Task: inverse folding
């Protein structure tokens, strides 16, 4: 019997975890934790889970938690102080927040101030299975990647095999995310009359995912690189489409490069054929897939990569379940083989 607890189970990422876990063939017990809804039935708040999960939300009590696995879908807080005790009891953990993704202590503290914990930072493994599968299998504490960073790192990583011809100081990325990426807390910014028929750039020079991208990709390329990143919120609910631009001074067969790099990856689909090299956001919504369109303007030396993901699944809860599967010695695709809905 495998039991899984989810802290922050009433938020968008936490509730997506519940939705995926109720259909997971190897999970027998789900423990939903929410301070704001403790004592209330899950299916009364998340009505789509009626008949699937009718348990009550619980208070957070990590010192007495009896579970095999723990997801933390909550901001940095007091839970960090209990993590060492949780890990010592053999409970494996995936943290969904930004804290501990960046292994440089100074950058981690500057990007996500407060609740610094050098021991946890040292223990944390970056949870992007397509790049760090073997490390994840052995890990007890995972820092799940950010939603934007997942789409962008997966798009750029194959080019690490052809880095000598690239201008790594001039990588320009823009991404459009569905409004669910901003979380469940209401605000005027996310109010329907404000977002309807609107596209709104935000944090254009200081988004917290930029240091994460640069940190992970610098490690992959074994070289410093610079990313100019501009995020926007669109008027759709789910899905990220990232436009990744960089330049090469040499010829590259992008179709072969990307096809070879991801040839064994079930959840990454490469679109490189003429006329079929542009991803459709609808094709990845409600799925754990990342679709990457590869394009090369030979006359200008411009590489354009178009990366589409569901920000709540491949950009969050789906990758987290993929990580859990690996950590528990399971087929990483378990519970994640959903296809998109059409029309």
Result:
């Amino acid at each position: 019997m495998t039991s899984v607890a989810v802290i922050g189970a009433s938020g968008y990422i936490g509730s997506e975890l519940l939705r995926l876990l109720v259909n997971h063939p190897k999970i027998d017990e789900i423990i939903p934790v929410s301070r704001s809804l403790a004592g209330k039935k899950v299916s009364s708040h998340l009505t789509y889970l009626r008949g699937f999960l009718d348990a009550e939300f619980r208070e957070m009590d990590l010192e007495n938690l009896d579970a095999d696995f723990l997801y933390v879908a909550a901001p940095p807080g007091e839970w960090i102080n209990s993590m060492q005790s949780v890990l010592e009891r053999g409970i494996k953990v995936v943290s969904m927040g930004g804290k501990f993704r960046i292994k440089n202590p100074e950058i981690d503290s500057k990007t996500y101030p407060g609740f610094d914990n050098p021991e946890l930072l040292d223990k944390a493994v970056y949870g992007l299975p397509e790049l760090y599968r073997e490390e994840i299998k052995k890990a007890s504490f995972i820092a799940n990647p950010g939603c934007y960073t997942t789409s962008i790192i997966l798009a750029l990583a194959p080019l690490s095999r052809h880095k000598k011809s690239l201008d790594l100081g001039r990588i320009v990325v823009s991404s459009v995310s569905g409004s669910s990426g901003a979380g469940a807390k209401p605000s005027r910014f996310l109010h329907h009359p404000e977002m309807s028929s609107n596209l709104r750039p935000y944090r254009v020079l200081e988004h917290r995912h930029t240091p994460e991208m640069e940190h992970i990709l610098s490690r992959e390329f074994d070289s410093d690189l610079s990313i100019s990143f501009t995020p926007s919120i669109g008027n759709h609910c789910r899905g990220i489409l990232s436009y990744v631009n960089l330049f090469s001074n040499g010829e590259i067969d992008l179709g072969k490069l990307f096809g070879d790099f991801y040839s064994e990856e079930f959840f990454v689909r490469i679109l490189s054929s003429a006329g079929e090299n542009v991803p459709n956001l609808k094709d990845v919504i409600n799925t754990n897939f990342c679709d990457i369109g590869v394009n090369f303007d030979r006359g200008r030396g411009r590489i354009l990569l178009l990366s589409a993901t569901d920000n709540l699944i491949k950009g969050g809860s789906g990758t987290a379940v993929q990580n859990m599967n690996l950590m528990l010695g399971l087929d990483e695709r378990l519970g994640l083989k959903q296809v998109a809905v059409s029309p």
Observations:
- The chain has eleven helices and 13 strands.
- The mean pLDDT is 96.
